[in-house]
Design a protein that fits this description.
Elements (H helix, E strand, L loop, with lengths): L1 H9 L1 H19 L36 H37 L1 H15 L3 H12 L3 H28 L2 H8 L4 H37 L11 H8 L8 H28 L1 H4 L11 E2 L15 E12 L2 E13 L4 E5 L6 H8 L8 E10 L2 E2 L5 H7 L4 E4 L3 H4 L6 H12 L4 H14 L5 H4 L9 H13 L5 E5 L7 H18 L2 E6 L2 H7 L2 E6 L2 E7 H6 L4 H8 L60 E2 L16
Parallel strand pairs: 1-5, 4-9, 4-10, 7-8, 8-9
Antiparallel strand pairs: 2-3, 2-5, 5-6, 10-11, 11-12
The structure holds adenosine-5'-diphosphate and magnesium ion.
């Protein structure tokens, strides 16, 4: 709620509208206690007094009635009727829309055709017909205005509900045995409520105008009772001779409707869930960079992609989430580097930081460098990054259904990925798409290229994802848990496919996973990540055989071995730390069995074993597991 108000007030026009409207509403509420003259007492001797006349601040009308008093009483009435009509319309419209959208099928058809029939009449004509049938009067005008607005709400809410009715959380509620009423009230309604409020805030002004329109025609409030519309109607005959009698109610209508519309637009912007997380700012095309340390020097070590002391944080309000806290990694052409760690350890954020794909806000790269062929990509201009994205450096994500566009054929999507970077004729791109599908071993690639993503199985879609990553023959592929959603046989096929590709094409692969089995199968080297930092790196075989960091050792102990007999699987107790309040020292200390005071004292460096020939290994631990890697003797 507080967040909603801050967002609303940041929008100056909406705030102005809000202030205007609040003043009018307060004034209307205070009318009975204000020292006003009676609004309906006629005094024909003092007809058409001009504003500022004695005793009549705004003058008098054609019957000598005090205009100020009539204006305020009329405003009160018009507001009340407008709001009441909006609430009725929203209530019945939303109820109809939710029922139609939730139950669907014949119910939906029947209800929506009736709504369509109502919508086929022009608004004001329908309202006139309703009032004509019910007889003139403010109550009937209210009913008419509410009724003609019900279809608008019903259509709007039905659309949202149809989208929600088949979402997983609604299915889950059904599985839990909840009845329709409970589901509608607890699952659907909270999700459509913001839409109802938005629709209301943008239509109240319109409904006040419609009510005024009916009163203007003499079908709403009946004399001598004043509302803004009837005041205008009565002043019409004196429009030329005594314009102030029309200007006064007209100006009030203008103020009210403008205030409501400005405020309504602000409410819509602040409540729209799509605008909320981004705090009304468009996400940037690249991650924001705010490096406060020096940029690390380039190293000549044959690596095609290297991360040097990379820091990526999320700044949310006054919290700082250190998702990546100084990560250094490198891959050479033809090499596969595994990055492994529990969920939440910062693997995906590391991967996305490479091409500046972390959403900003809230993401910020606060330090380090990402070098592709020696050139720093952190803070590189958007165009430079865009040329590399998908062309030289390609990504494969975990969920192929989320990466593929549901409405285009996979062949077209592959062709598009090629043509973004290489403007070749469409037919040629299509032929290349088929060749790519063949390369990732999709059967019948010619006909499969014409399939939509939903017509394929999960494994096949992931192959399309890989084909898309390969489309422009990249140098580096960053695969973020590409096989996590697949079953074991498909996973094995995809791993061997990636392995062949890197041998044939000299691809460098950064393979992110939480599965040591996958790392063992595919990767030359492995980096173990914990709480946003690398805690151990080394050749895969060496790390698997003799893990040095207690965390790696325990991760490996969690992997069941087939055919190795019965072994106790040691789960790691506790959870990874929250990255917005990391304490000094080793982040794993709270879960480690060997923690001592020094472990929590301060920064622990990632360094190689001092007295070991194994120079390729590094570990961030004071008391590593294996004697071969330990620097000092374990007591
Ligand atoms: P994983 O290793 O499972 O891929 P991630 O890289 O996705 O983990 O996330 C790393 C950390 O960053 C997590 O602790 C997560 O809570 C945090 N994080 C990710 N996105 C955001 C965000 N938009 N705002 C705040 N924290 C985030
Ligand atoms: Mg992830």
């Amino acid at each position: 709620m507080a967040q909603f108000l801050t967002l609303l007030l940041r929008n100056r026009l909406a705030a102005a509208g809000g202030v205007l409207l609040t003043m009018v509403v307060l004034l209307a509420l205070a009318v009975p206690v204000l020292p006003l003259q009676a609004p309906n007492v006629t005094d024909t001797a003092n007809r058409f007094l001009t504003p500022l006349a004695e005793g009549h601040l705004l003058g008098t009308d054609h019957l000598g009635r005090d205009l100020l008093s009539r204006l305020l009483w009329g405003t009160r009435l018009s507001l009340a009727v407008g709001f009441a009509a909006a609430i009725f319309a929203a209530f019945f419209g939303a109820a109809i829309g939710i029922i139609a959208g939730y139950f669907g099928g014949r119910t939906d058809n029947l209800i929506m055709r009736a709504v369509d029939m109502l919508m086929a009449f022009p608004y004001i004509l329908l309202a006139l017909a309703i009032v004509a049938a019910l007889g003139p009067g403010l109550g009937n005008a209210l009913i008419a205005v509410a009724a003609v607005n019900v279809p608008f709400f019903a259509r709007n809410i039905r659309g949202i509900t149809v989208g929600l009715a088949h979402k997983e959380f609604v299915d889950a509620a059904r599985l839990a045995g909840l009845g329709h009423t409970r589901i509608i009230l607890t699952e659907i309604l909270p999700n459509v409520l913001p839409v109802i409020v938005i629709a209301m805030s943008t239509t109240i002004g319109w409904m006040i105008l419609e009510t005024a329109g009916l009163s203007f025609l003499g079908l709403g409030s009946q004399p001598p009772q004043a509302d803004l519309g009837s005041m205008l109607g009565e002043a019409r005959s004196a429009l030329i001779t005594n314009p102030h009698t029309s200007v006064v109610p007209g100006a009030m209508i203008l103020i009210i409707v403008m205030g409501i519309n400005l405020l309504g637009d602000g409410v819509r912007d602040a409540l729209d869930p799509r605008l909320r997380s981004g705090a009304l700012t468009r996400p940037r095309p690249t991650t924001r960079v705010d490096r406060n340390g020096p940029v690390p020097e380039a190293e000549r070590d044959g690596a095609i992609l290297s991360l040097q002391n990379l820091h990526t944080q999320f700044h949310v309000k006054n919290r700082v989430y250190k998702a990546v806290g100084g990560v250094s990694l490198k891959v050479k052409p033809g090499e596969c580097l595994g990055v492994i760690g529990e969920s939440g350890s910062g693997k995906s954020v590391t991967a996305l930081s490479i091409m500046g794909l972390v959403a900003s806000p809230p993401g910020v790269i606060t330090g380090g460098a990402v070098r592709y062929r020696g050139e720093d990509l952190v803070g590189a201009p958007y165009e430079a990054l865009r040329r590399l994205r998908g062309d030289r450096v390609a990504y494969i994500f975990q969920d192929p259904l989320a990466t593929l566009h549901p409405l285009y054929k996979v062949g077209d999507q592959l062709a598009e990925a090629i043509r973004v970077h290489h403007p070749i004729p469409k037919a040629q791109a299509w032929a290349r798409a088929i060749a790519l599908l063949k390369q990732v071993r999709i059967p019948n690639p010619e006909s499969r290229a014409g399939s939509y993503p939903h017509e394929m199985s999960g494994g096949m879609r992931q192959r399309v994802g890989i084909a898309m990553a390969l489309a422009n023959d990249p140098d580096v592929i960053i695969a973020d848990e590409p096989t996590t959603a697949l079953d074991v046989t498909v996973q094995a096929q995809i791993l061997s496919l990636l392995d062949d590709l890197r041998r044939d094409r000299g691809l460098a692969i950064v393979f992110i996973t939480h599965d040591f089995g996958v790392v063992a199968q595919l990767c030359d080297r492995v980096a173990v990540m914990y709480a946003g930092r690398i805690v151990e790196t080394g050749p895969t075989q060496a790390v698997l055989a003799t893990p040095a960091h207690p965390y790696s050792a325990r991760l490996i102990a969690c992997v069941p071995e087939l055919g190795a007999g019965r072994r106790r699987l040691e789960a790691i107790p506790g959870l990874p730390p929250a990255v917005d309040r990391l304490e000094a020292g080793c982040a794993f200390a709270p879960r480690c069995l060997k923690t001592r005071a020094e472990c929590r004292a301060g920064e622990i460096a990632l360094k190689g074993p001092a007295n070991s020939p194994d120079t390729d290994r590094e570990v961030r631990c004071l008391y590593p597991e294996t004697a071969a890697v330990s620097e000092r003797d374990m007591p």
